[in-house]
Amino acid sequence: MIRVLLADDQPLVRAGLSALLNAEEDVEVVGVAADGVEALDLATELVPDVACLDIRMPKMDGIDVAARICGPGASTVIPVLILTTFDIDDYVFRALEAGVAGFLLKDSDPEEILRAIRHIAAGHGTLDRTLTRRIVAEYVERRRLRPVTATRGIDGLTARERDILLLLAQGMSNEQIAGALVVEVTTVKSHLARMLPKLGVRSRLQAAVWAYQNRVVTVDDMSR
Questions:
Q1: How far is CA 114 from CA 41, 144, 157, 191, 205, in A?
Q2: ∠ at Cα 155 (152, 158), nearest 5°?
């Protein structure tokens, strides 16, 4: 079972998401919070497989909660999926910097939300496809003055790891990468497990951002 924590300040949203998730055989909602402080307390107590957090909540917003449970200082990392009605770039930037595994709009199809939760529970990342190109482009542009670490990072990767990073940055799933490279999905997962620490990142989503930030792949590549 995938154990999920939900946090949203709107009762109808909490009820709807709970009903959606609990209807699945492999998903269980283990905690529901109405504000950020309650979400942080429940996350610490329950250690769910995935925490689905709204951004704008009383007492503490979802991104601040995320920074505490999946950021560099977290004692136990809990993967976070941000679900929000706000399609605002700054929120996405803060969420990426907080270390979240995924970001979706609440008006996404139910199947897409379920797929995102399953991907994140399996160690994958997800980002709303309608946001990806614009967000990554602007995120990278805002950080052009940062020191570029690509040379050292790329030198540490094997040829196969470089191939996987390129495809990952273009939004491919493990299954799609395996098909493109004609290898088993388990092989892709093994390469990813070795590659992420080399890049100093903790998720596929962060690896994709790293690839764009360090110009291993460009935004134009996403349209190919």
A1: 24, 35, 32, 26, 18
A2: 145
3-state secondary structure the chain: CEEEEEECCCHHHHHHHHHHHHCCCCEEEEEEECCHHHHHHHHHHHCCCEEEECCCCCCCCHHHHHHHHHCCCCCCCCCEEEEECCCCHHHHHHHHHHCCCEEEECCCCHHHHHHHHHHHHCCCCEECHHHHHHHHHHHHHHCCCCCCCHHHHHHCCCHHHHHHHHHHHCCCCHHHHHHHHCCCHHHHHHHHHHHHHHHCCCCHHHHHHHHHHCCCCCHHHHHC
C-alpha 189/C-alpha 91 separation (Å) is 29
Single-letter amino acid code for the residue at 124: H
What CA–CA distance (Å, rounded) separates 195 from 175?
A: 17
- Does the pTM surpass 0.90? The reply is no
- Taking residue 219's Cβ as centre, other Cβ atoms within 10 Å add up to 16
Rounded Cα gap, residues 219 and 132, in angstroms: 10
Task: Mark residue 88 as left, alpha or beta (left: phi above 0; alpha: psi -120 to 50; beta: remaining).
Answer: beta
Q: How many CA atoms lie within 13 A of 64 on its CB side?
A: 12
Per-residue pLDDT tens over the stretch 85-118: 766 656 777 777 777 888 888 888 888 889 889 8
